[in-house]
Design a protein that fits this description.
14 helices; elongated; mainly alpha; two-stranded antiparallel sheet
Amino acid sequence: MNIIDKFTDYFESIDTSDEDTNRFIDEKYKGCLQITLLYVKLDRKNIHKTCIQYFFYVLLVFYHWIIVIVGLIDTVGINFILYSKGAYYLGLIQMTFCGIITIAFYRDKLVIFHRSMSKNFYDYKEKDTEFIDRFRKECDRDVKLFSLVPTSTIIGAVMAFVLSPALDKYGTYIPEENSSLNINLPAPIIAYHFSTQDNMGFFFAYFLQVCTGCVVIFIIAGGGYLYIVMVQNVCCQLKILIYSVEKLEERADECYYQMCGLKMKYTEKEKFSDQLYDFCYNQCLKKNFEHHQTILRLFDCVRHFFSIPVFMAYLIASIVIALSLLANNNDELRVKMYETRWYYASNRVKNSIKIFQQMTLKPLVIMSASIVPINLDTFAVVMNSAYSYYNLINAFSD
């Protein structure tokens, strides 16, 4: 067995996906995750193409990461605007590079999430399921709405890429003829090891910047879209669970009717003393607990997959807002469970609700790199810092 076969066998051994999950992901994202390396296929048929794509992305992004640093060193003290623009490029490239390197470690989390998603997460196996379809339609609508953000990111990045050479002619400096910096390039701060003043060097540098820009844009925008899809689906499941808790007694009544074929004739308080009704109530409650456990597992997948700062894009406000909705739904779930008439139920049901309430006290918050919480408070701090940085640039310009 040669080295390539051993390499292929190794990736097949760590592949936790299956054909149904791969097919669902392809249909859901139209193959975009493969292009952005957010989800790659590791089977024997696709492994060679995946490896070539992976190493091409790594070498391209890493090479530009190095030469942007060199360009920043060359422009220190020459032009503050050009230097700050280069620092922004460096941040984007570094985010992309870290994402490419680390994303493979959490591929199994993505598989688990979408395998559950392909099976509609959780099935209550009850008569009234129309509310589930309603919440799923709302989820799809919200995903489309939030998806305007990564779409606008791509459009804005392309426009900036095209207009940058024309805008850079004003307020920047004219490099020397033998300099590796060229003001006519979309990213003039990049210091290539070859001259970009002649036609051949200019077009080759332009080609490299186009390729790097596409990789950076698609990975960041694709990561934002994937983030929106996963978070919104967790929110949708929380809404379904909240509604199910609100209808807990109606579900127990329906379960009682299906078991004995009789409608409840007791008063609202007396029916909890019926052992059969108490059993039905507890069974319905148990389904809510199982659904909640499923949601926690899904959130754990999201938390691990997006703990890397590459996808924690505070520049995209709607992503942070989407996650804040997740935390709000978790708080609402705890309130709705408390509003049930648990005080009429048996001690067994009361103890189960106590355990459930204790579990909902744990906030559903993603930590960026396990350090900074992703919520609106942190976003406000970042925006305040960005405004201070903007005032600093104006002060230097004056």
